[in-house]
Amino acid sequence: MDASGAGDDTSAGTGGAGTGRGTGGPGASRARPAGDPVRRLLATVLACEAVVIALAIPVAVAVLDVSGGTAGAVCGGLAVVCLLMAGLLRFSWAVPAGTVLQVLVIATGFMVPTMFFLGALFGALWGTAIWMGRKAREAAAR
Q1: Hey, which of 30, 84, 117, 137 has its CA 20 to 30 A from 7?
Q2: How confident is the model at residue 35 (pLDDT cuts 50, 70, 90)?
Q3: Quick check: pTM over 0.85?
Q4: Measuring CA to CA, which residue among 129, 121, 125 is closest to residue 41?
Q5: How far is CA 5 from CA 1, 2, 12, 22, 38, in A?
Q6: At what angle do helices 77-87 and 94-107 cross, to 10 degrees?
Q7: Of 97, 121, 98, residue with least CA distance to 109
């Protein structure tokens, strides 16, 4: 019993100590390079936006008498595109494409009027994420 317990302590103690892979080892802050702050912020906005758009489907069907197929195709399609776009932000064309996506989300207000407000809110978050992410990138470069 003592031998197995000591063996566990020894293997746990040497696993991350000199390699920089543990939370307390030397170089732990350098173990994972920080990603692009613009991309992280924009991906967060898109992921949250996908949830909100998907939640507009039952509202459109139950409250506003939009057909389930139409609501599912429009809102569901946009939610999937938001998630895909969040994964494609590493490409230079993705930010302008995401901006177009913001306009399409605002346009869903013709189906669910509350989406005019929510789409504008996410559009503002999109612009703010670009601005704040660039400021964070510049600050990290100094």
Answers
A1: 30
A2: confident
A3: no
A4: 129
A5: 6, 5, 11, 20, 46
A6: 160
A7: 121
Q: Which two tokens stand for residue 12?
A: 């746990």
What is the rounded distance in angstroms from the CA atom of residue 32 to the CA atom of residue 19?
A: 13
Residue that wins the pLDDT comparison between 20 and 99: 99
* Long-range contacts of the stretch 79-85 (C-beta < 8 A, 24+): 79/50, 79/51, 79/53, 79/54, 80/50, 82/46, 82/47, 82/49, 82/50, 82/53, 83/46, 83/47, 83/50, 85/46
Main-chain dihedrals φ then ψ at residue 35, nearest 5 degrees: -80, 175
pLDDT tens, residue by residue, 114-126: 999 999 999 999 9
Tokens of residue 132, six digits: 């704040």
- What are the tokens at 115? 């989406």
What is the token pair recorded at 137? 């990138």
